[in-house]
């Protein structure tokens, strides 16, 4: 077999693998969107499986907002996710800059601690936090979820931001200091504009982590007016019945904000993740 033929076969095999992977990613999303526009009789008809809605309807979306107060769940998710993303990003900038630019005692131990926390499942800290929040009367509040998401996302984001800072030459800050800038001015006027893509990557990571989280929301929140989207959608799965159409409609609407965010910020996210992977 010639080298050209081997190369062609390898290219065909790679294309087939990529096509299968693409199908595995797209098919669940298509099925969710298709089911959301089907009437309930068509969804539960096990004798006739339909891959495309025979009867189009928006009843599932109407019931989602009228009967299950989806707009309030959406508002709760946006408030908690945005506040988590902004606070995690700000604290990661300060923490990452300190770890990248300053030498102090126990710096290595702190980095090791941050890394070790990534090996611990987040579910393990829920019970101690629940006891603390109960004594502080923070159960069934948005603030309890905000604190939990902050604790879970901050260590990884600090380590990631540190790698972004280490990539930027310190000579830029030295030149700015010679021109009369203070340390704070160097950080906010010189360094941060250069690493904007890294900041976006950290914000997106923290936002998505808070947006998709279910377990903590189920444990810390007990009333429906404080539910986030994942907790609200979980309530549609009953013991004897699952409201598939409404559940799929909620999933489609929950997917839209993250899809729009990635569409708008995709270039910055890719640049930030690749920039943080290399130290210069």
Topology summary:
Blueprint (H helix, E strand, L loop, with lengths): L2 H34 L3 H4 L15 H8 L3 H32 L5 H11 L8 H10 L6 H26 L2 H9 L4 H12 L1 H17 L2 H6 L8 H6 L9 H32 L5
Helix pairs in contact: 1-13, 3-13, 4-7, 4-10, 5-7, 7-10, 8-9, 10-13
Helix content: over 70%
Estimated share of beta-strand residues: under 5%
The helix/strand class is: mainly alpha
In DSSP terms, counting alpha (H) and pi (I) runs of 4 or more, how many helices? 13
Describe this structure in words.
This protein has 280 residues and is mainly alpha-helical. 74% of the residues lie in helices and 0% in strands. It is built from 13 helices and no strands. It has helices at residues 3-36, 40-43, 59-66, 70-101, 107-117, 126-135, 142-167, 170-178, 183-194, 196-212, 215-220, 229-234, 244-275. Helix 8 crosses helix 9 (183-194). The protein is globular, with a radius of gyration of 24 Å. Mean pLDDT is 85; it is low at 276-280.
Name a few traits of the molecule.
280 residues; globular; mainly alpha; disordered C terminus
Give a brief description.
With 280 residues, the chain is mainly alpha-helical.
């Amino acid at each position: 077999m010639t080298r050209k033929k081997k190369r062609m076969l390898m290219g065909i095999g790679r294309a087939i693998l990529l096509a299968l992977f693409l199908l595995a990613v797209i098919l669940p999303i298509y099925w969710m969107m298709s089911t959301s526009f089907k009437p309930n009789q068509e969804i539960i008809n096990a004798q006739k499986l339909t891959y495309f809605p025979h009867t189009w309807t928006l009843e599932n979306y109407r019931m989602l907002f009228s009967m299950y107060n989806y707009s309030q769940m959406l508002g709760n998710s946006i408030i908690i996710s945005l506040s988590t993303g902004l606070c995690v990003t700000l604290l990661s900038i300060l923490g990452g800059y300190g770890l990248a630019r300053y030498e102090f005692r126990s710096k290595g131990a702190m980095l090791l601690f941050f890394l070790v926390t990534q090996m611990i499942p987040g579910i393990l800290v829920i019970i101690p936090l629940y006891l603390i929040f109960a004594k502080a009367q923070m159960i069934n509040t948005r603030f309890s979820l905000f604190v939990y998401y902050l604790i879970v996302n901050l260590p990884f984001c600090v380590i990631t931001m540190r790698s972004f800072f280490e990539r930027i030459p310190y000579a830029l800050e030295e030149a700015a200091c010679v021109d009369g800038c203070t340390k704070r001015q160097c950080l906010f006027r010189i360094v941060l504009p250069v690493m904007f893509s890294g900041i976006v990557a950290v914000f997106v990571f923290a936002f998505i982590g808070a947006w998709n989280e279910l377990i903590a929301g189920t444990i810390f929140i007990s009333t429906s007016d404080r539910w986030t989207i994942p907790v609200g959608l979980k309530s549609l799965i009953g013991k004897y019945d699952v409201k598939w159409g409404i559940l799929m409609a909620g999933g489609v609407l929950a997917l839209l904000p993250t899809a729009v965010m990635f569409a708008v910020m995709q270039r910055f996210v890719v640049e930030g993740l690749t920039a943080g992977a290399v130290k210069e």
